[in-house]
Structure formats: structure tokens, C-alpha cells
């Protein structure tokens, strides 16, 4: 296979020291990958959580120009990476957990490109890729701006961004906060505001930002998941004000880097 991996900037610095929150999450991801053998477990999701996210993404995906280069930042077991590659896109899986990359490697052909890298200091040259996926990352970092800024750096002008976050305004987040407060514990996941993340994207030079709400039933109620994915449910969450943010466990924002 032709080597099309975008070169790293020669003066690009090593990742900054992680916060305690981020260090704990790095250790969790190492533990997930070391103890699990299914794609969901390796990435730290429940099977219903990953299946729903992946199914939702496939429904949104549209063909991209031939010859485009994408990177999947926080690729986990390379679930999305393998599927996008099968659509004819050259895509590189990137993760900062070595055990995770080993599990991804075992699931992919030897010529399939995988790369070790931190989302806040990616080992790619500035304006070197046509598209970026960043799923399951923002929940494990202290703030979104450092990640978004780095994604903007590596994207070419007009480049395509897919990024998700846990929805801080939904019922699931409110219940979790209340439950942990009663136990005197802090949140171990970082939830995000769609409005705030939209502002971060704008400040980083992204335009045409489109939100997609993602309702995910709890594992114990996964039998209800098909009801949340009917055409009627999707229509209601799109057009009834406040319903999507209330019912959705997560959201995806799709955006484009502004042309210079």
C-alpha cells in the first residue's frame, strides 16, 4: 500500500502533562482494552451504547470525494475506522492507549494504518487531512477547546469534522448528577453543552455546524431503543423545541473548517 500518512510537523511539541481527571481516564482506557475482547468493552461502552452510536453514524454518513484522507481520533477497537475504510476512504485510526491499539491491530488487516497519538497533540502536519472523526474523546478530557483546536490545526480548509459529546442537559445526565450527589461523589465523566461546544467550534474556525441528537436507552431498558429510532421519534426530536436535548444521552456535531 502507498504510504499516505500525513507527515508530522518537525516542531510539533509532545503532549502536555495530563490533569488528574485525564490521567484517570487514560488508566481506565488501558484497563478496558486489557480486560475486554469485544469492540464495545475495549472502547469502554456498553454493547447497546456502541451499537446505537455506530448505527446512528452510518445513517448520517454520506460519500466523500475519492482520494480523501481521514483520521479517526480515539479510534478504540477501530469499529468506525474499518467501516469507513470499507466505503473507499483512506482513514488512519489514532488512539493514545497502547493496549487499545493492539486490540485494534488484531481486528484489522496488516496494511490497515493505525497510529499512536494524543488528541491534544496529534502527530500530523498542519492542514494535512480532509476529514476527522472524534468520538468518545471529549468525555475524558478536562475541556473541549484543546482538542477542537488541534483538530482544526490538522484539517485542511473546508475539511470535514464529526465530533460527539455526552449531553449535559439531558435526563440521563441530570439523573446521574443527582445520584452521585446523594452518594457524595463527583462525576467521573465530563458532560458537555451543545451550545458551548458550538461556540468552541466557531472560535476554532469551524462553520456550517449541524447538531444531531442521539437518544440511547439505558442497558436495562434497551428493548425501548427501537422506539427512539423510529422516523416519528427522529422527526419529533428534530422539530419539537427542547425534546431532542431532553431525551438524548449524547449528540454529534458535524462541521466544516472555514476556508481561508
Verbal overview:
It is a single chain. With 260 residues, this protein is an alpha/beta fold. The protein has a single domain, classed as Vaccinia Virus protein VP39 (Rossmann fold, 3-Layer(aba) Sandwich), CATH 3.40.50. Helices cover 39% and strands 19% of the residues. The chain has helices spanning 20-35, 39-43, 47-60, 79-86, 98-106, 145-154, 171-182, 194-203, 225-228, 231-239, 243-247, and strands spanning 69-73, 90-95, 114-116, 129-134, 155-166, 206-214, 250-257. The chain has a 7-stranded mixed sheet with strand order 3-2-1-4-5-7-6, with helices on both faces. Helix 5 links the parallel strand 2 (90-95) and strand 3. The longest helix is centred in the first third of the chain and has 16 residues, at 20-35. The chain is globular and about 50 Å long. The model has no long low-confidence stretch (mean pLDDT 91).
Which characteristics define this entry?
260 residues, alpha/beta, Rossmann fold, seven-stranded mixed β-sheet
SSE map:
Layout: H1 20-35, H2 39-43, H3 47-60, E1 69-73, H4 79-86, E2 90-95, H5 98-106, E3 114-116, E4 129-134, H6 145-154, E5 155-166, H7 171-182, H8 194-203, E6 206-214, H9 225-228, H10 231-239, H11 243-247, E7 250-257
Helix pairs in contact: 1-5
